[in-house]
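Box 3.1. Reading complex inputs
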Amino acid sequence: MEQKRRRPLRGVTLRLALCALLTGLILLVAVFAPLLTPYDPYAQDMSAALQAPSAAHLLGTDTYGRDVLSRVIMGARTSVFSSLALVAIICVGGSFLGVLCGWLGGKVDTVVMRLSDLFLAFPGMVFAIAVAGLIGGGMVNAVIALAAISWPKYTRLARGQTLAVKSAPYITAAVMANNTPLQIIFRHILPNIAGPLLVTAALDIGTMMMELAGLSFLNLGAQPPTAEWGSMMSKGRSMIQTSPWVVLGPGFAIFLTVLVFNFLGDTLRDYLDPKRRGVRSE
Amino acid sequence: MKKRLTALLCLLAMLLPMLTACGGKETETGDNGEKVFRYGTTAYGPAMSNAGLNPHDNYSGWSCVRYGVGETLFRFTETMELEPWLAAGYEWLDDVTVRIDLRQGITFSSGRSLDGQAVRECLEDLIAVHDRAPGDLKIQSIAAEENAVVITCSEPNPALLNYLSDPYGAIIDMDYGVTEDRNVAGTGPFVAYEIADDHVYLKKNPDYWGGEVKLDRVEVTAITDGDTLTMALQSGQIDAVQGLPYASLPLFTDNPSYTISSADTSRVFFGAFNYETPALQDLRVRQAIAMAIDKESFTETLLNGNGTPAVGPFPGNFSFGSGAVTAPGYDPEEAKALLAQAGWTDTDGDGYVDKDGEMLTIRWLTYPGRMELPLLAEAAQATLKDIGVKVEVNSTANSADILESGAWDVYVSAFVAAPTGDGAYFFTTHCLADSAKNRGGYYNEELEALAAQLRGTFETEQRSELAAEMSQIILDDCGFFFASYLKMNFVMKSGVTGFTAHPSDYYEITAQLDMTM
Amino acid sequence: MRRYILHRLVQLIPILLGITLLTFAMMRLASGDAVEAMYENLGTSVSQDIIDAKRAELGLDKPFFVQYFTWLWGVVRGDMGTSYISGQRVFETFVSKLPNTILLTVSSILLTVAVSIPLGVLSAVRHNRAADYVIRFLSFIGNSLPNFFVSLLLLLVFAVKLEWLPVISTGGGLTGLLLPTLTLTIAMAAKYTRQVRSTVLEELGKEYVAGARARGVRESVILYASVLKASMLTILTLLALSIGSLLGGTAIVESIFLFDGVGKLAVDAITMRDYPMIQAYVMWMAIIYVLVNLCTDLLYRRLDPRVRLGEEG
């Protein structure tokens, strides 16, 4: 960010700090999950199956008699980390391709854009199921499958943004100053287009969590006994009438996480608001 | 822009009330006081290879018989013994020839009467076009008499009549043939008038030979999602269901508005050990694993009591079933002792047993197509951990590929062990050196000899004894372990009568089916 | 103009070839095949001879490229083959179910637009005030509920508890359409409300708005005449881009509500390895996707004459 802040806008900064704090909290829970669980999230006790929430089990127990709260905490690891990893992969990879296309143009641009057309037109589910079939089910593979079909969005976004800033005077100046293309991309283009990409990424985390949950519904996500929110919901959905706590626990966890990351995205957007910056994305 | 937006909003505002106005509940019975039975099932459709009613195509015979359109020459009783149905009786003329007398005065829904010639035409078409029937039946020739057929086999085939009672043996009128929408003319209490991949609509056969048919119409709807099925029954949109998820059953069990009919089937959930895995070549290790599976908890808790713990391949209602064989039950202490004897102990204190620096890890292969299998895998994962065995579950629809690659130690699947009530089937498919499904490479010379003996034995009692003996051998070798048998359930509104689950899983809709409301 | 459309349609060919070849390759590499999958799922046993015979009958014993080109040649002659599983003609089966899915998609998009544009605009205009927070909060909820769970809740409330609507959609006419549409709309509207909000916010931050304000132009005029029009372009593009995932995303909803469309057909086809059906599905979806995008571009041009067609390729 090469611009100086003109207005104080303490409110936005404060909100951003709050969001960062909450995001940090979620990440901390995910990192230290094994230390926080009151019970072993994988220990079965059939005699205690499907108990309603009580002092002993704050969120009740599931069909195998496992503590739902412990599984929700442990699930933060799988769910949050895999969604973050997924978004990181597609955001970094996709944006890189996009910047390259925008900067280089010509053949590279055409090939990558046609390729992105192909993937955008490809029904994602068919691809995901085929990938899962190729390399097996499981969380890592589900992430790979979704990454393979979700990158074009970022490529297009980054390409458009790059095209927009390419003709800006400061870029021309940088070219004239004999900067290498890489220098220009990293020092001048990326910082100026990072805003919209970051915002999209933050908002995408919730969407990706849903996509992963959808794959769990089709038995392509996390494998048992892995605690993961999406698969906990899809496995427990039949119990919504008989033992609702089995689904409500992970459901609420997903909601909170999506809330925090979306809030982060919004605040980030406000923070990086064009009004507050010299460069405009036209 | 504003105008366009406003117009769009107005349009939607007009549409919404229209959508809701068309609502309202559908009529409980059809027009003019007809009795209509609406049945939701998870077991019909292209995914089950049984769409349509043509018994000579794939598994569509199951739909033909289940929904009361076609009937077979013999049928199974509650104890899975044969009784004449369209047949009046039979007589083995020699080892390869049987004469089957037909019941008289039966007509197909097409109007043609059932005689020797009609049966012959039907069976000849069956062995000409069906994939499994020719190999099962081994029919060489069929001769038609006025009211009988004489079937000659190419080799002694003691289970011929059992196989003829498989739904593919439903007798249909070949003159009528198979219509474009896969309809056929059978002899059953109902006649289909609309067939699609997701439903079959039937109306009563007024000339049914087995007495007055009580319902006017039956609507069979395929519902693949268990929760949709549950709620369709709760909302009253359907009258009875098959295949409810286990988790939904408590909603109906203690509820006076619903009744449940259940039956133990011979669909067994079982595991095969891979003899290629060095650790599993030790009998004690196989036994330990088998003994560490808590079958009671599995059926009681995870299946909500809707399953019976298994001993051998066949359930207790068979004379050669669970009652005739023995195997050790759930005993973690004994399992640990067996592992220790085999040299597997936890030397590094990580909770898992090891030997020569290697941990005992079991790659548990199964598939999610049957909802019980992943449940069993996850339960076994925990109980095996208790005895120090690490289980890596791989539940995938591509289990066949992994089987081929050999990257598995235990393969757990579901199989209808005795679809025709006969004991030979399970062994010839799974346990012999040349069995197609002998995945783990199990071999026992004595078993091979008994199997050869079974092939030439016609006497039912002797066949049962042999089957029991063979079951005991594979249990003693612990080449397989058997977890539980599927209990199938029909849940219906309390006004429904005559809707009974049958152990064979072949008979659902009959002339006796009725509703009082 | 006509040349442009033609050009775009010609571009469709390599995309289709690429997609179908990719699908073909992946499905082949991914698994055994339709024959094994079929017998395995049924839990019955057949001899290897029967499996081999069935395979030969379906042409699955031939080399990969022979299979692909046989299929392709069929398509060129207007024959998409017969389903391995049901034995029905693929094209006819597919076309008979396509209208249902399109109906569901279109109704969901219309409802989404009807919900998300007013809410998004309101949220942007009332930026960081009560209305904005409420709308955003609701959109977070919509964004954090998996499809299969939303449909379950809707069924439970509207079909089981209130008994207003049927559980099974088939043959239910417009009433049957309502719950599946609502399910899809909730997730989409949650997403698009936020998109509309941020697009409008961005427009509001532009110089011409400040200029207009400085000239004393009324807020509502600025909003409707300039901001909304400019925002619509972005939103239109976003909507068009997501048509593909929308059409594919109806599968779960279709199977829960027994809505007889191609999504359900596709899931069944994939689990059963019904290659001709999968190919047909992938091909049709690609065609629809490309056509929708073409229409969007044309519409785009009408709305904003500054856009030069043919520039982006």
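In summary: Residues 308-313 of chain C have pLDDT under 50 and may be disordered.
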